[in-house]
Amino acid sequence: MTDWNVRPVTSADEPQWRELYRGYREFYGVPQDESKLDVVWSWLGDEAHETHGFVAVDEQGRLGGLAHVRRFARPLSATTGLYLDDLFTSTEVRGGGAGKALLLHLGDYARDSGLSVVRWITAEDNTTARRLYDAVATQTSWVTYDIVS
Asked: Where is the N-acetyltransferase domain (predicted)?
């Protein structure tokens, strides 16, 4: 089993991050568009932007997974939470603990930052990921809606 170190993404991670993010887009059937990767990468490099990235790194310095998060207000509880927009592990390491390491790190990060929850959505048929999610989190009863503009 690989020992995964989770840390914030750095500028040196760009080539491996791009490879992972292309894999993420492919997994969800989103067309490849380097201009979209450019935008997301620029967000991750901008400390003032709401989106922040974390990566799971093995002993050789290879990235095995990524997570993109942002804080969000929770008016009913008068707290702030952490929203996980993207979580992806490469097919080569899937099932090897990188995803779990990322999720556990985000839980620790949220607690250490005084955030009340880490929240995310996933596709109903994403059974492999849902096995991991069920092991580290509680599924809620909320249903998601979108108004596309």
From this structure: 4-149
Reported as a single tens digit per residue, the pLDDT across 137-146 is 999 999 999 9
Per-residue pLDDT, 1: 65
| pLDDT tens digits for range 44-74 | 999 999 999 999 999 999 999 999 999 999 9
Catalogue all structural domains in the chain, each as residue range(s) with its CATH number: 5-136 (3.40.630.30)
CB 56 within 8 A of CB 4: yes
C-alpha of 118 from chain center: 11
